[in-house]
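Dig into what follows:

_____
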Amino acid sequence: MKSRLRVIFWLMSLCMLGINGFQAYWLYTTYQLTTTQFARTAHEALLTVLQRQQLAELQTLLQPTVPGQTYSHVALPIQNLDEAGRAQLRQLLQTGSRQPVDSRAARRQEDSVAQAFLQFLLRNTGTSPTLNLARLATAYQAELKLRGAEATFLFDTVATATDQRLPSVPLQAGYSVQTPPVALPALPKVAVRAAFRPPLPYALRRMGGLLAGSFGLLCLTTTCFGLMLSTILRQKKLSEIREDFINNMTHELKTPLATVTAAVEALQHFGALENPQKTQTYLAISQQELLRLSGLVDHVLHMAVAERQPLQLHPETVQPAELVAELVQQHQLTTMKAVHFAVEVAPAAILCDRLHLRNVISNLIDNAIKYSRDQVTITIQGQPESVGWRLTVTDDGIGIPKGYLPAVFDRFFRVPTGNLHPVKGFGLGLYYVRQVIERHGGRLQVQSELGSGSAFSLWLPSH
């Protein structure tokens, strides 16, 4: 059983690790794709902003110098161009007239023609090209917000040829996501790129549903694993309890049967019938053991019936201090161990079933004596509380392992001891105690450590 349980545990653990590992890899891959998508969006936004800036500069250069003048009479002195300038202008117009089939290629050609035309105008109008990064950053931030990719960024100017008009700006640490450099139309030998920190907010917005689903699946599988493991351990414990109960019941039932069998054989084969005194002794022993056997069977049947029907109570005013004093005197007379009682029960009156409360206290004292060494000190403390009355029975006996504390009040439960049964019983005493206390509307608590004794505490309402 233990080896099979260990195999099941490791297989379930490997299954959990596999599921969690697959989820982690899938989420990491999705995050990488989302980061790539963010970089692509940032690059497209930068291209769009630069194209708008390019168109704005073209419109500025083509504006008429005289109010009311049309665009056909612009200030550009084309008629004063030299032969090289005229040839370049004709080449630009011929290039712009070609129409590629691919839309992306057409867009790239239009951009290149527009950039070349802008550069041509700048050279022939004597305009000095400038770069306003602050204005470009403002426009870029607005475009990113429009595309749902708003984030903090840095601009970096890089040279695209040997003529370095602007120095490259070193990026700060942490800005690991970068767009490809985009050439400026007014400054053909300078390109601009944007750098971002890892886009966690963007990724969370894009992956919110995936993360929620993965987290839910992880919680569900972990919960199922925990419940399954708890169920297996509980079934294992119940199996041990069942085996221990069967062993105890076998010993308890065999003892009176063996005694009665021996007495009957003595009467039959050893001439005990000829001796009236021996006959009476053997008959008395048989009767006593049969009564004990009948009591054990009735006890088990009573617990079975009590499971289906509520316990009947007959409340009356009871003085707990008097009950404790009677029970202490009774156990001192009947026990075979050296027992020292320390009783501190304050006078009080409570409303309860006298018979059942007496049996409860007797069971607690009896357990303290049975589950102890040759000598035991039992402390009984009782005092009224604001809305009830509390009694605590403490011993310095063998104690209970912490793993079995939640089950000590279960029916037929006894702490497993293997094939050794130093203390006889069916595990019904504390189950009866719990039934009585709960039927009164009270509460039970137990504290114990193996080798350090136990403390059972019961609380009953005052009325």
